[in-house]
Write a structure and sequence with these properties.
- The protein is of the alpha/beta class and about 325 residues long.
- Helix content is about 45%, strand content about 10%.
- It has twelve helices and eight strands.
- Strands 7-6-5-4-3-2-1-8 form an eight-stranded parallel β-sheet.
- The longest helix is centred in the last third of the chain and has 18 residues.
- The protein is globular, with a radius of gyration of 19 Å.
């Protein structure tokens, strides 16, 4: 199966070629990476720029519920919130998507019909990815058949950490083939990859295999999105586009809970990948509680005061 980057066809011709390519990527200066991420996080964004950033962040959220206790009613309520985040202010942007398990995708599709809000569905035995390939592909087919616009897959971290890069690459290719017109987000679970070098390798592996987005995390482990690992992935998509002309999105997920945090990530995007990524077609936040804080801060900028605790719904 072809990749989206023909210029790198030789790199994916065999397991040994792929290993040579990935291990030939420049090593990551961990100290420098973390220092740059920290420095960018100190930028002061105020007044009009802050209001713009808050609305942009709202428009980039994949409003998410991925719990064993999810019900159709909960998904419909989440969909209503995605379409109309603040019932008291109809100028509030809609979120980018609602993200659910495959068995809830049809419910989300029906609830969001005509709204422009996308339906994203996790798949491939999320969050662990511990299943046979045919099971993973059936998971994807179910979500696509239910009408999902986007598929969030998890890579086989065990295979990746064992150096079985071609296996991971071929699984991503197979999933991509099942997606049809749905966009594919490839989740690395960066908290389990241990090193920044591994995150850089995983980023390139996902992009070579045809990911439409690369995504940090499932939100189900102790360490999820951080400024440093997201900065590293933004550098990867920037460099990939420079070399191939193909633009890939980035989605940090898990642990981003406040407006201040979200704005720091938007600064990372602007200063690293550039303005082309400051759009929800290319950058997303995987979050649920983040939206509530953004709405509170938006209302504060509008009225000069915070609302009471019942201003936003509890997801």
């Amino acid at each position: 199966m072809p990749t989206t980057a023909p210029a790198f066809a030789d790199a994916t011709a065999s397991d040994s070629a792929l290993r040579r390519f990935l291990h030939g990527l420049p090593g990551v200066d961990a100290v420098g990476l973390e220092a740059r991420a920290a420095a960018l996080g100190t930028r002061s964004i105020k007044t009009t720029a802050k209001a713009y950033a808050i609305d942009l962040a709202i428009s980039m959220i994949d409003l998410t519920t991925l719990e064993g206790a999810d019900t159709p009613g909960k998904v419909r309520a989440l969909a209503a919130k995605a379409v109309n985040p603040d019932p008291t202010d109809r100028t509030t942007p809609r979120t980018a998507a609602v993200c659910v398990y495959p068995d809830m995708a049809a419910t989300a599709v029906a609830a969001l019909a005509g709204s422009g809000v996308k339906v994203a569905s996790v798949a491939t035995a999320f969050p662990a990815g511990r299943a046979a390939l045919d099971v993973k592909l059936a998971d994807v087919r179910d979500a696509v058949a239910a009408g999902a616009d986007e598929i969030d897959m998890v890579i086989d971290r065990g295979a990746f950490l064992a150096g079985r890069y071609l296996k991971v690459y071929e699984e991503i290719l197979a999933v991509k083939a099942e997606c049809g017109s749905a966009r594919l987000k490839v989740i690395f679970e960066t908290g389990e990859l241990s090193t920044y070098d591994n995150i850089r390798r995983a980023s390139w592996l996902g992009m070579l295999a045809g990911a439409d987005f690369i995504k940090t995390s499932t939100g189900k482990v102790a360490t999820n999105a951080t400024p440093a690992n997201t900065l590293l992935m933004l550098e990867a998509v920037r460099d990939f586009r420079e070399q191939t002309g193909v633009q890939i999105g980035v989605k940090p997920a898990g642990g981003i809970r406040t407006s201040k945090d979200a704005i720091k990530f938007l600064v990372l995007v602007n200063e690293t990948a550039g303005e082309d990524w400051l759009d929800n077609h290319w950058f997303r936040f995987g979050a649920s509680s983040l939206l509530n804080d953004l709405l509170m801060q938006r209302q504060k900028l509008s009225t000069g005061r915070y609302s009471g605790p019942d201003y936003v719904t509890v997801d």
